[in-house]
Amino acid sequence: MNSFRSYFVILLGLCLSCSVVIQALGQSQTGPSPQNTSTASKRNSSSKKATAQRQRGNAEISKIVSEINPRSIEATIRKLVSFGTRNTLSDQNDPNRGIGAARDWLYGEFQKIAAQSGGRMTVEKQTFEQPKAARVPQPTMLTNIVATLKGTQAESVNRVYVVSGHYDSMCGSPTDAKCDAPGANDDASGTAAVLEMARAIASHKFDATIIFMTVPGEEQGLLGATHFAEEAKKSNMDIQGMFTNDIIGSSLGGNGVHDPHTVRIFSEGVPSNETQQEATTRRSVGGENDSQSRQLARFIKEIGERYVPWMKVWMIYRRDRYGRGGDHQPFLERGYAAVRFTEPNENYQHQHQNVRLENGIQYGDLPQFDDFKYIANVARVNAASLAVLALAPARPKNVTFPTSLSNDTPINWDANKEPDFAGYEIVWRDTTEATWTHSRAVGNVQSYTMKGMSKDNYFFGVRAVDKKGNRSPVTYPKPQPRRTGTGATPATSP
Ligand SMILES: [Zn+2]
């Protein structure tokens, strides 16, 4: 523990300067403001207070970040590797080798954490029979381990955030259930991060609900995650964000680049489940870069870099790596916002390989290639983001623009209902900017007009803020359905 603490203190010291820079970058700037000066000065002083609060951050979240321990992550990964293989088709009943042993061990660990949660966390084995499929030669039982930390606010308890890693592994062949498949990086790293986040988070109270999940069947075609997402959709579960952590184990790439301070976040721009009508509207008014998943990625960048300032969150504007996939996809396909966390440079000699020494090169996904401190830092970025999501109000709902022609931009939205809700912020950016560059606190109102700023020239969004300064992800407005007889102009007017 002592060496972990001193590592943490050294990192904090080393990164003091980068933290200052990052905080400066993260500050809201005041944009064009041709409004009445007394309101503007009031707004500026409340905005200064909010900025100061944001810079200080929330001590509880810093505590959660500091409680994530790389040695505990290392112990989990070594334990998972000790099961020899975790191929989804491997033995379900052997207590020492195969996916069944891994499943039962993980279930036991989550139960130990739940026992310390004051009754707020429950652990479930979600078991289902997977029929024959491309990589499943015969019907096979799969078990998701699902640990649910229930929110404590009646208005928010049904709002859910899911963090996941896959506990299955593979060697060169996805259907070889006998070969050794240590899967230390793919994906014991993500599984261990989820378990460690549960340990650090479960003793704290949140408004909304957080689900910590480890799933099998990823290498067989995202089967465990697909089952969970489908069941969630059937029961109308209000998942407002899903993170998959997959291959977050190594800071050293096959390209020789050592980068222990960057994590990639993949987010899609155009929603996977977009309807034809939504696609037509988007082509007309823009928004290729403003799906709810992308707002989630921007949120993680802002929060992750604030609470873990020695880490850079590298947003990648695509659904996943080129031609590859992950457990966030079944969520995206069902309309849930979801992102993928992955190390910055992969090493393909250690992924989906039989363990072997060939021409002096060690192939295989072995623990010696993991960087446990790096995994802990990725888990910290996840944990801080999850904690703020579950403390903050829900993102604003039903955010719309009228389609009328004007150089001002009126924005409307529905009221939040949380008892600790404080007000809204309008954010905006130039259309070629990657992240929100400006924000303005507008109080507890359901509409606000950005005077002198045309919706043609900027992207706008709205977020909700609670009394402690916790901010929701941003909601990107949709065009208001056109009313007839009011002079409103269709979005496609030339
Ligand atoms: Zn994987």
Rg to the nearest angstrom? 23 Å
Provide the domain count.
2
Along the chain, the helix and strand elements come as HHHHHHEEEHEHEEHHEHEEEHEEEEEEE
By DSSP (H or I, 4+ residues per run), the number of helices equals 12
Fill in the CATH topology of the largest domain: Aminopeptidase
Number of strands: 17
Structural class: alpha/beta
Strand order of the largest sheet: 1-2-4-3-5-8-6-7
- What is the 3D shape? globular
Described by strand count, sense and barrel closure, the largest sheet is:
8 strands, mixed
Secondary structure: helix percent: 25-40%
Q: How much of the residues is beta strand, in percent?
A: 15-25%
Q: Which compounds are bound in this model? A: zinc ion
CATH class of the largest domain: Alpha Beta
State the low-pLDDT regions, or none. 1-46, 485-494
CATH hierarchy: architecture of the largest domain: 3-Layer(aba) Sandwich
Distance between the termini: 66 Å
Q: What does the average pLDDT come to?
A: 89
The CATH superfamily name of the largest domain is: Zn peptidases
